[in-house]
Design goal:
Layout (H helix, E strand, L loop, with lengths): L1 H17 L6 H8 L2 H10 L10 H22 L5 H12 L1 H10 L10 H5 L6 H41 L3 H16 L4 E7 L6 E8 L2 E8 L2 H28 L5
Antiparallel strand pairs: 1-2, 2-3
Helix pairs in contact: 2-8, 4-5, 4-8, 5-8, 6-8, 9-10
Amino acid sequence: METVAAERAELRCLEERVGHRFADPALLIEALSHRSWCNEHNSSAANDDVAVSNERLEFLGDAVLGLCVSEHATVHWPHLGPGDLSAVRSAVVSAGALAAAARECDLGSALLLGRGEAATGGADRDSILADALEAVLAAVYLDGGIDASRDVVGHLLGPRIAAAAAAPGAREAKNRFQELVARRFGAEPTYVVVGSGPAHRRSFVAEARAGDEIWGRGEGPTKRAAERQAAAAACVRFAKDCNDRSTVAKEPTHG
């Protein structure tokens, strides 16, 4: 009984971190069930106690996630065109971004993994965390509908959507900044990143540097997001600096 009570308490804590109280907790348990755990459990379970892995929920969750992120970005940033909206969605639904969000709500500690998968660090593996988060979103959708899904996506991914929407081309900006620095300084840019805030809601500030000078600063919910914003700002300053140099060169001399 104590074990069952502890498991229920753990699920309640996870629900609070995710931002949804399940009417049907079985959906959440299915979302947390990795196939490695199901294989071990089903090999010794009775016929009426067969565990189902989270792979089907993961499939549905991918669609739920894409819809909610696309809707959130479209509604909150009406100035963004289709290309920028696509870039925002891609940045937020990537395995790395989802895994980071899963770590922030400590999803890994609640996963049901086989002994081998658990022993090799599966609870902190990007692919497993990202898949599990998608499965949880599907479980939320089946349990509470699209409104509940919107709320959870906003709770877990809202800051990431905002960061991506602020600089939808920032992913390409890092490559562009690297090219500009190589052309002008014959070197590569460097980034200095400082994090702050509690573990579940970290924020980062990055400086993009080249030639012993800070060319851009950026903020974001992850180190990468902050670096990309800093690179985007640096590219803008680089362009302005080049225009200023060009203007000075074209000015006629007197005397």
